[in-house]
Amino acid sequence: MLNLLFGFIFISGIYYLVRYRLNLRKAAESAPAAVYPQSKEEFSGILLPGEWLEMEPLNKESKSYRVVNWGTYAALALLFSLLGVVLATDWLDTQFIMVSYLFFIILSAIRHRGNFFILPNGVILNARYYPFSDIKVYETERIVRWHELYGLDERADNGYKLAFKIKNKWLQPHYVVIQHKEQLDKVTALLKRKGVTGVENEVPYE
What we know:
Layout: H1 2-30, H2 40-44, E1 46-48, E2 53-54, H3 63-88, H4 91-94, H5 96-109, E3 116-118, E4 122-125, E5 128-131, E6 135-142, E7 160-166, E8 176-178, H6 181-193, E9 198-201
Parallel strand pairs: 6-9
Antiparallel strand pairs: 1-2, 1-8, 3-4, 4-5, 6-7, 7-8
Helix pairs in contact: 1-3, 1-5, 3-5
């Protein structure tokens, strides 16, 4: 039973790594055609959750792309080495939790810093392309007191959370934070022009 479970986890992990790299490559090839962001100010006004880094241009020469590109090969080598150890020993019977933990550490180590681009025919959000026809709605929220993001980074405070709902997708993509209202208005105007509807959510107060 543990062998079947680990086999399923292993195949799923390999699929995830390969697909993630292919999605990022497609994003890097498409990003130069983006209509937004274009200027340095527009890039710096987009914050990526987690480390709250400013967004950077994406292409095949960018540092973050090369880290994921070559890191994927390293991760695959480590995963197959781990599989070899599991097959050659009784680790799976005695150390299943530890093996699974190592497996997920390797997977989570290969992550792009994130991105958001509006293209002529869709958007790129965190290395994944979504055509406008697949976007059900976009949602915006002002990051003020009582908002879940308020206080995590001073640059995000009083900014705007921008998220998307994708049709027929259980796990929704992550969000970005737009620092300034002028930028948010430009983004939403571009989306509305492409037929994407939006919802402005109110922040619940305690």
